[in-house]
Specification:
The chain is α/β, with parallel strands linked by helices. It contains seven helices and 19 strands. The longest helix has 23 residues. Its EC number is 1.8.1.9.
Amino acid sequence: MSNDNANNAIHDAVIVGSGPAGYTAAIYLGRAGYQPLVIAGALTPGGQLVNTTEVENFPGFPDGILGPDLMDAMQKQAEKFGAELVYDDVVSVDFSGDVKTLTLDGGDVIQARAVVVTTGSSYRKLGVPGEEEFSGRGVSYCATCDGFFFRGKPIVVVGGGDSAFEEALFLTRFGSSVTLIHRRDEFRASKIMVDRARENEKITLLTNSVVDRVNGDDSGATSLTVRNVVSGETSEVPANGVFVAIGHTPSTGFLGDAIALDADGYITVDGASTRTSVPGVFAAGDVVDRTYRQAISAAGMGCRAALDAQSYLNALGE
């Protein structure tokens, strides 16, 4: 995109983020004739689905579809209807006027009458010594991406929710053993998931325990230092693969205090709509949704955001 285009034109609609929510919003706004600009991100256009393998539950694909292929198809569909993509990140915004201003990492300043935020969320980290050092060399946040690297090796999953149990069960295909470590003695996960794990002879559940450190050498992670929160005792748990499944952090840092966020940083919207606290700014997908977090629910919300934005733009036009 040329700087002239970026710095001078006032766009009707700008979508910040990509993924199922952003691309669906772009398809709808494109078909409505608004030529939306999608600021898709510098590193991860397509969002979390780009890091998944087989997506089996997206309607219309009875044989499943690879996550990157699904996002590629959505992107092409958005572009077919006139969406323009920019591979950069928004670093700050000013939503105070009728024309919203977005400043990109590369220095471009974008102006828009309506903005749809679909920046998703990122994996929450443990924040312990060794986690960063061994990230990509044993420490992972995506079982489906990295499980096969640890075939025949000891694996640990950290977390206590459904996603942690799903990952643990999935990883039994690869690991010599799978230990699930959780800080409490009760799990947030659904009973059926916990029961399945208990029945699986490859899985050991280690409760009332936290990871203090990831240990390793030049070959990568080798073990975890684990502390029992009741007794205070520490022990070494062998682990070549460490999968962190402790939740997500919404990607809303760039917004500052421009719109209302909840205590955890998720964007708050008005009822079942996608309207944020600022007129002309809408939000969809995992940046709003802490409950369902599915590709199909994000896409559905992206559709709603586009229709809400369209109705706002129509009212402006009148």
